Amino acid sequence: MRPLLPLLLLGTVALGQPRDVFPAGAQCLEHECFAVFWAARPFSAASEGCERGGGHLMTVRSTVAEEAIALLLQNRAGRLWLGLSLAPSLSCTEPSQRLRGFRWVTGDRSTDYTNWAPSGRRCGERCVTVSRELRWEERRCDEAADGFLCQYSYGGSCPRLAAPQGVLVTYATPFGARGAEFLALPPRSVAFIPELGLELRCDEDGDSAGPRWSRDIPGAWPCEVAGGGCAGTCGEERGRPRCSCAEGTVLAADGRGCRSLCEGSPCHHHCVVADGSFVCMCFVGYRLAADGVGCEDIDDCASEPGPCEQQCVNTQGGFECRCHSGYAMVDGRCQPRPPCLEAPCQQRCEELPHGYRCACDPGYAVDPRDATACRLYCNATECPAVCGAGGSCDCPEGFVLDGSDLCVDLDECDSGHCEFNCTNTPGSYQCHCPHGRYLRDNECLPIPDGDGDEAFSGDSEPVPPTPVPSRPPPKAERLHPGLLVAIAAGALLSLLALLALGLHLARKRCRSHGSMDYKYSGPQEKELGLQPVPSAQKP
């Protein structure tokens, strides 16, 4: 249980509220006041009476509030409204719940304490009263109770005024209660001291920790009452009270508060109290101006020697060091910029003594047309696939995707691309024809009679496209007689050569075919494409 703060019960009432609603007693803690009103009112009228004084019907969430009720009632008989009611939208109370479905007038149901009187299910009674036995009892809201309890909340309070013995001090609260025995007073309370002709007010003070006693007239009041209201010390000067402040501070305009000499000073940056006055000072990187209050930026780059190794740029209150082109700032020093730092290499960069060169990741090779770019490189069997951000992967022509990111060579020879022998190559293939045939459009055609073997090849290789002349051929001109004689002689020699070739072929056909040789197309082929070749007769 939270310890009960000092409470005080008032027995007299001097100030009233509108509509004949008067507090019969009040108690104040540091942040709250409670008041009792003995006036027969229904629940709604009692709630309005509390609101006119700036409060609401009392909420009893702990035993501290219950003890305050006990002091206010002083064993007087009667039932008083509490700030607890059941909404009309609910059909009945819920005995199993802590507050039985009721809500505080503040709109919530939170509480650490309840004290319901033993009773049955009472669905038609939607408001709550409390008696001197401190039991909560349900009651019809439109019926008049004997009185009501109000609660007022504040951010802080003023303490009871210290006064000379025999000097009476009475207080009036903003919610209408008046008496002489308060220990704490809420803001807007008034203290009356007739013997000293003094009237003080508890005011909110934005410059202090909370409310404090003050008055409209500047200067100290008698030091015997709350230290004359001085923030410093109170003393008499020529028979009159006067406030004084500690070193480094001066009296405020009201003659009671103390403020620093630097408060409201014209200094741009810092203010320092010294020898009963103040001195302006500036941040690092600035100097005090000629007027003694302003601050000017110091051009650090203008000093000799300069603070930077290569370039210096002055800034407000400081400076910035920079490096020349081709250099970079490393640990506060300008170092030659690594050539690869700005190299346009697509994948990798290798530093050289006098520059750099671009390199590629595994599976890629430098593009011969662009030394900074990389292209996919495939060996005889596989290469990495090129995969995009969407997850799709592509392979070069003649390769197929195996798994998620590997391209393997497609063996075209297994697909019957060639009529006879076939040799697979990385990304492609070669067709071969047997002796006596030549290849055309992947077909092996017989060599025409009378043509030599040397005129036809049995192997196929990619045939480049027929070049298109960039300019029209020259016009035909009449041949020179000497040229005609040369052409005739050449034709005669060609005819003789063909005859000799025919005789040679005739001899080969008559020869035995028992001895055969084999050859393969080249070392780069993955499989040996074998074909029979007639062995030549030794001379």
UniProtKB/TrEMBL annotation:
<comment type="subunit">
    <text>Interacts with ITGAL, ITGAM and ITGB2. Interacts with thrombin/F2; this interaction switches the specificity of thrombin from a procoagulant to an anticoagulant and antifibrinolytic protease. Interacts with ANGP1 and ANGP2; these interactions significantly inhibit the generation of activated PC and TAFIa/CPB2 by the thrombin/thrombomodulin complex. Interacts with PF4; this interaction enhances generation of activated protein C. Interacts with HMGB1; this interaction inhibits HMGB1 inflammatory activity.</text>
</comment>
<dbReference type="InterPro" id="IPR016187">
    <property type="entry name" value="CTDL_fold"/>
</dbReference>
<keyword id="KW-0732">Signal</keyword>
<keyword id="KW-1015">Disulfide bond</keyword>
<keyword id="KW-1133">Transmembrane helix</keyword>
<feature type="transmembrane region" description="Helical">
    <location>
        <begin position="483"/>
        <end position="506"/>
    </location>
</feature>
<dbReference type="Pfam" id="PF00059">
    <property type="entry name" value="Lectin_C"/>
</dbReference>
<dbReference type="InterPro" id="IPR018097">
    <property type="entry name" value="EGF_Ca-bd_CS"/>
</dbReference>
<dbReference type="InterPro" id="IPR057350">
    <property type="entry name" value="THBD"/>
</dbReference>
<dbReference type="Pfam" id="PF07645">
    <property type="entry name" value="EGF_CA"/>
</dbReference>
<feature type="compositionally biased region" description="Pro residues">
    <location>
        <begin position="462"/>
        <end position="473"/>
    </location>
</feature>
<keyword id="KW-0677">Repeat</keyword>
<keyword id="KW-0245">EGF-like domain</keyword>
<dbReference type="InterPro" id="IPR051505">
    <property type="entry name" value="C-type_lectin_domain"/>
</dbReference>
<dbReference type="InterPro" id="IPR015149">
    <property type="entry name" value="Tme5_EGF-like"/>
</dbReference>
<dbReference type="GO" id="GO:0030246">
    <property type="term" value="F:carbohydrate binding"/>
</dbReference>
<keyword id="KW-0472">Membrane</keyword>
<dbReference type="GO" id="GO:0005509">
    <property type="term" value="F:calcium ion binding"/>
</dbReference>
<keyword id="KW-0430">Lectin</keyword>
<dbReference type="Pfam" id="PF09064">
    <property type="entry name" value="EGF_Tme5"/>
</dbReference>
<keyword id="KW-0325">Glycoprotein</keyword>
<dbReference type="InterPro" id="IPR009030">
    <property type="entry name" value="Growth_fac_rcpt_cys_sf"/>
</dbReference>
<dbReference type="InterPro" id="IPR016186">
    <property type="entry name" value="C-type_lectin-like/link_sf"/>
</dbReference>
<protein>
    <recommendedName>
        <fullName>Thrombomodulin</fullName>
    </recommendedName>
</protein>
<dbReference type="GO" id="GO:0004888">
    <property type="term" value="F:transmembrane signaling receptor activity"/>
</dbReference>
<dbReference type="Pfam" id="PF25444">
    <property type="entry name" value="THBD"/>
</dbReference>
<keyword id="KW-0812">Transmembrane</keyword>
<feature type="region of interest" description="Disordered">
    <location>
        <begin position="450"/>
        <end position="476"/>
    </location>
</feature>
<dbReference type="InterPro" id="IPR000152">
    <property type="entry name" value="EGF-type_Asp/Asn_hydroxyl_site"/>
</dbReference>
<dbReference type="InterPro" id="IPR000742">
    <property type="entry name" value="EGF"/>
</dbReference>
<feature type="region of interest" description="Disordered">
    <location>
        <begin position="517"/>
        <end position="539"/>
    </location>
</feature>
<dbReference type="GO" id="GO:0016020">
    <property type="term" value="C:membrane"/>
</dbReference>
<comment type="function">
    <text>Endothelial cell receptor that plays a critical role in regulating several physiological processes including hemostasis, coagulation, fibrinolysis, inflammation, and angiogenesis. Acts as a cofactor for thrombin activation of protein C/PROC on the surface of vascular endothelial cells leading to initiation of the activated protein C anticoagulant pathway. Also accelerates the activation of the plasma carboxypeptidase B2/CPB2, which catalyzes removal of C-terminal basic amino acids from its substrates including kinins or anaphylatoxins leading to fibrinolysis inhibition.</text>
</comment>
<dbReference type="InterPro" id="IPR001881">
    <property type="entry name" value="EGF-like_Ca-bd_dom"/>
</dbReference>
<dbReference type="InterPro" id="IPR001304">
    <property type="entry name" value="C-type_lectin-like"/>
</dbReference>
<keyword id="KW-0597">Phosphoprotein</keyword>
<dbReference type="InterPro" id="IPR049883">
    <property type="entry name" value="NOTCH1_EGF-like"/>
</dbReference>
<feature type="signal peptide">
    <location>
        <begin position="1"/>
        <end position="16"/>
    </location>
</feature>
<keyword id="KW-0654">Proteoglycan</keyword>
